[in-house]
Amino acid sequence: MSNFVNNQPVNSTTSFGSKIEAIIKYTNIGFKLVPLDELSRSPILAWSEIYDNPEFWSEKKIKESPNRFHNVATTFGKSKIKDAEGGDLYLHCLDIHSEEVLKRVHGLLKGEWQTKTFVTKTQKDCGHHVYWFEHSSQKSK
């Protein structure tokens, strides 16, 4: 599970608009959101329910429970997003949290990854998350 809203409470206005608009847009682009408590430390729902069901959140369900979303994390795996042929896509994340790794990927991070993936900054000075979709849920060997 990964906390990905740039460590800002989603109850504030974001680049996506209001809190609920942001939650709906994140869900619509394939994130499987897990609401976190007010300290952004613990899920307030069992994350496995959301992991196992890519369709867990509907727009209606989000609008009916806005107070659950102090901040959010996401689970990975099968997403509700499909490829052009209707095939399943799986959400993955590269978690960068060391200065050495950041130095090695900085060019990609500020260039190609910024335009072709979803990149967020984390609380750590050198921390970033890079999200993307693949057809496989298999881990690299």
Question: Strands, helices and their partners?
Answer:
Layout: E1 2-3, H1 19-28, E2 32-36, H2 47-52, H3 59-64, E3 71-75, E4 77-82, E5 88-96, H4 99-110, H5 112-116, E6 118-121, E7 128-134
Antiparallel strand pairs: 1-3, 2-3, 4-5, 5-7, 6-7
What does this structure look like?
This protein is an alpha+beta fold and 141 residues long. The chain has one domain. 28% of the residues lie in helices and 27% in strands. It has 5 helices and 7 strands; from the N terminus they run E-H-E-H-H-E-E-E-H-H-E-E. The chain has a 4-stranded antiparallel β-sheet. Strands 1-3-2 form a 3-stranded antiparallel β-sheet. Strand 6 (118-121) and strand 7 (128-134) form a beta hairpin. Mean pLDDT is 84; it is low at 3-14.
What distinguishing features does this structure have?
three-stranded antiparallel β-sheet; four-stranded antiparallel β-sheet; disordered N terminus; alpha+beta
